[in-house]
Predict the structure.
Amino acid sequence: MRILVTGGAGFIGSHLIDRLMQQGHDVVCLDNFYTGHKRNLQPWMGHHNFELIRHDITEPIRLEVDQVYHLACPASPVHYQYNPVKTIKTNVMGTLNMLGLAKRVKARFLLASTSEVYGDPEVHPQPEEYRGSVNPIGIRSCYDEGKRVAETLAFDYHRQNDVDIRVARIFNTYGPRMLENDGRVVSNLVVQALRGDALTVYGDGSQTRSFCYVSDLVEGLMRLMNGNYIGPVNLGNPGEYTILQLAQTIQQMVNPGTSVKFEPLPQDDPRRRKPDITRAKTHLGWEPTISLDEGLERTIADFRDRVTPPTSQPES
Ligand code: NAD
Ligand code: UDP
Ligand code: UDP
C-alpha cells in the first residue's frame, strides 16, 4: 500500500514509519520540520519505498495514496503554545486539507486526536462517551479545541462525503527520540536527571498522568487503521501516576543524588488523566504491554546517548 504519514518526522510519526517501512509499504512523509527532524528518518533516506516532502499541511497538496495517518501537529504545550494561531491553523486548515485529499483519492484517514479533548476531566477514568471539560479561551485551547474541531471535521467528512475515517484519542506517550527540549514531563525529568540538575515538578506534583510507551501506541494506531472500528478510541496506558511519583522514579533510576524543585503549575493543567481502554480492548484486541519501568529504562538509554553531563572545568 502507499501510505501518507503527516508529521512523520516527529516523535510518534517516525516510530510509525519504521513499522510501515519494515512491513514493505510505500511511505510518503509530509512534515514542515517544526518539531520534527530528518535524523528521525535517517534509516529510510534513499530507500526506494520512502519519500520525504517538506510541506506545511495548512497549504493544499495533491498526492495519490491508499491510507493517511494524520499526525502533523506539535504535541508539547511548550511548542503548541509558542504560536497558538499556527497550532489552530494546523489543526483546522491542515486537517481540512488532509480530509479533502482523502476524499479525492478515497483513502482511509486516521486522525491522531488526543486525551486533551477531555480537558480537565470531571469523570475518571475517561471513557470515550465523556464529552469533556475544556476551557475554550485558555492557553491550551489552541490545541484541545483545535483537536475537537479536527474530530468534528473527520466525522462530518465521514457523514457527508463517505470518507473512511478512524479517530484515535492518544494519551501521554513517551519513548526514544523525544527532543531534549520537547518540554513534556518525561523528557524534561530524564534530561535533568542525566545532567545532574534539579527535577522540575510543577505545582505540588499531585496531578496524575498515564504514560504509554511509544511502541505500544504505534501498535494501537496500526490496529485501528487496519480494523473495522471507526472510533473514537482511547489509546493509552491505564497505569496512573502522580507527577511527583514519576519524578522520584526517574530520580532513582538515573541519579538519586539529584533534587526535586517545585515550580508554579501552568494555567489549566489537568488534575487527573487516565484512559478507560475498554473500547480498544474490545474492538482492537489492544492493550499496552510495556510497563513504566521498562519503558523508562529504554527512554533513559536513548537520552543517555544524546545528553552528556556537563564536564567539570579544569582547575586553573
Ligand atoms: P511531535 O511534535 O514530535 O510531532 C509532530 C510532527 O508534526 C513534527 O514532526 C512537526 O514538525 C510536524 N508538524 C507540525 N505542524 C505541522 C504543519 N503545519 N505541517 C506539517 N507538519 C507539521 O509530536 P508527537 O508526540 O509525535 O505527536 C504526534 C501526534 O500525536 C500529534 O498530532 C499529537 O497531537 C498527537 N498526540 C501525541 C501525544 C503524545 O503524548 N506524544 C498525545 C496525544 C496526541
Ligand atoms: N485538498 C488538498 N488536496 C487534495 C484535495 C483537496 O489539499 O488532494 C484541499 C482543498 O484545497 C481544500 C480542502 O482540501 O482546501 C478541502 O477539500 P474539499 O474537496 O473537501 O473542499 P473544496 O475544495 O470543495 O472546498
Ligand atoms: N510537568 C512537570 N514538570 C515538567 C513538565 C511538566 O511537573 O518539567 C507536569 C505538567 O504540569 C503536567 C504533567 O507534568 O501536570 C504532564 O505535562 P506534559 O506537558 O508532559 O503533558 P500534558 O500536560 O499535556 O499532559
